[in-house]
Amino acid sequence: MNEYKNLTKQGLWENNPALVQLLGLCPLLAVTASVTNAMGLGLATLFVLVGSNITVSLVREFIPSEIRIPVFVMVIATFVTIIQLLMNAYVFQLYQSLGIFIPLIVTNCAIIGRAEAYASKNPWQRAAFDGLAMGVGFALVLIVLGAMREIIGNGTLFDGAELLLGEWAAQLRIELFTVNYPLLLAILPPGAFIGMGFIIALKNKIDAVRSARAEKKTVTRARVTA
Amino acid sequence: MSFKIAPSPHGHNQRTTSEMMRWVCYALVPGVLLQSYFFGPGVWFQITLAVATAVLAEMACTVARERPAFSALRDNTAIVTAILLAISIPSLAPWWVIVIGTLFAIVVVKHVYGGMGQNLFNPAMAGYVLLLISFPVQMTNWLPASTISEHSLTLWQTLHTILFEYTPAGYSVEQLRAGIDGVTMATPLDTIKTELTRGYTLTEIYQGPEFSYFAGAGWQWINLGFLVGGLLLIQQRIISWHIPLGFLAGLCLPAFIAHIFAPDLMPGPIVHALSGATMLGAFFIATDPVSAATSNRGRVIFALLIGFIVFVIRSWGGYPDAVAFAVLLANMCVPLIDRYTRPVVYGHGD
């Protein structure tokens, strides 16, 4: 059980693929202009990550280590094709707005990184959980960045959520404030880089504060009388 | 005891940073006076707003960084950044434009990178690019110069327009830009760009009301005003001649060559030199000691690069003027330029 707790901690915080490993930045920066897009791509990546981790872990005994990378890529590509066809069938508008970034999940280094570093060395239950933790960590960063950019650039939250979640989700749309002139920079690619920088800075700050606190706790009183 | 940090390259010049920055402000006066003559008193409101925002933002940042609140204000750099940004934007831009731009320049571009002397990019120009990309309509709403404009605004009308985006009589800035024939007038560089794409030659374009003796009406005198101020800075040894000369050479030499080959399609060097933000950029913006290259040789390369990028974007790019983009692009090259132009230590070279 301890292993699972550790995996959760690694995936969500200490070794977060987006904030610490800085992997998969291309889709991260490109599609996070709104929460809906971020959520769509986050879920797709999560699915692919879990699927590829399980498969790689199951076949790890049979793959010669010389050709393991091509095999991993083909496994990942299979799951990406599945998710791409599924999105094409069920959430077509979101599929169109994400465009090329769905097939590009194949090249997301976070996925092949997990396959190589964890799934190819561990049993499938753990590999599946590792994929889940890493995928959730990645998706959360996507959603936070998407929310930040959507609020600053558009003044809304969950705009177009019905594209992903169905008709009922149209009510999720929150209009925080109306702007006559949106701050376009937040929606454009530079806004993604700047926003990402701030999120990483915030994470480092939290870590610094926490480690400073932990240090204080361990200070023990020196004995002055013998 | 305090360490006084002389501006880069940290040579001995017996002037403090705050004194140098004060001189920069004085040198801006002729250009700003001409600008307020040609584009109305709005520029003074913009400067006031920008300086107030910059001072507050600087104090907030220094407090947040656990330093004494007034320590950073004493060097006057925030004020210079604010003034440069304020005179770069249209004088009737809504108040929130300059506030957002100044906040970004001071908080993100300057203090996030470590405060005075640490910023990679020129804060004023980074703020300007943020505004230009985010609010393209407000940032290109330049009035025609007062000598050819149909409207002239009083002090109160100007303030009202900056605060509420309309004059007391209900005109928008867009409507104020219209000439007597109801056609909206653009800046000279913008006019050249759009009319060339419509198939006119430069000879025909120069007949338009936006142009007079050398270049654009109004703009040429403002540029000459900044030239005078810049020469004052060189005479006072606040800036060296390398960057302004390199900038103008990088811009005017290609312009001259292009003008010889295609006289009716490529504006000549004088039009380039006296249009848009050329002189402001050459003497006041590119010469920022922090984000420019360090050695004299490096500065020449840096400035030539800026001038050439300005020429390229003005001639073939999507924007009519390009000083801000050129300065930021050249700022990115500075570490590389500095690496290859490191002066040889006496006795160690070959």
From TrEMBL, chain A:
GO CC annotations, alphabetized: endomembrane system; plasma membrane
EC number: 7.-.-.-
Keyword list, A-Z: Cell inner membrane, Cell membrane, Electron transport, Membrane, Translocase, Transmembrane, Transmembrane helix, Transport
Membrane topology: Multi-pass membrane protein
Pfam families with a match to the protein in the record: Rnf-Nqr
Localization annotation: Cell inner membrane; Endomembrane system
Subunit and partners: The complex is composed of six subunits: RnfA, RnfB, RnfC, RnfD, RnfE and RnfG.
Protein name, per record: Ion-translocating oxidoreductase complex subunit E
Organism of this sequence: Idiomarina abyssalis
Gene: rnfE
